[in-house]
Design a protein that fits this description.
- This protein is of the alpha+beta class.
- The strands form two sheets. The chain has a five-stranded antiparallel sheet, with helices on both faces. A two-stranded antiparallel sheet has the order 6-7.
- It starts with 6 loop residues before the first strand and ends with a helix.
Amino acid sequence: TAAGHLGIWEADLEKDVTIWNDKMYELYGISKESFGGCRAAWLACLHPDDRASTMDTQLSALRGERDFSLEYRVVHTDGAIKFLTADALVIRDASGKPTRLIGLNRDITESKLTIARLDESEKRFRQVVEGAPQGIYVQVDGLFRYVNPAALSIFGADSAAQLIGEPFINRVHPGGHAAVNERLRVL
């Protein structure tokens, strides 16, 4: 079931008691016996660089300033770092005082790593294209959308801003308009 992939938890704010389902222990990489079952024990599982911002978000939610929805990293006992999302509902008493949090956690490590790999790939691709001695450009619907530095001189421009959004055909010798228009029609 979908719930089998989610960590489910509840925190009693008045008693400082936190209860986790089995998936939470897996997500945090700790055993039931090693978890202290309180806010400080949960906070100790977080990556040190994420603790302050995570607590700020939680405190804002408790004050009613925003929803409790965030991403943070946890450090497993073996040193592995995992990325989690946390979404929680603040339960308040009749006077509006927050008394409990009920929430869900989900592991987003794979998607974060995939995004990082894509970003790195794009960075390498951009370096190759930007540094290419050949002019490279992209036109969509007859308009320039991208030009590398080498293409600027080919099209007689000083900056990409001079070309982006301009009709490609404007930079083609008039004698070549018919051939270029036919080629664009076929593409």
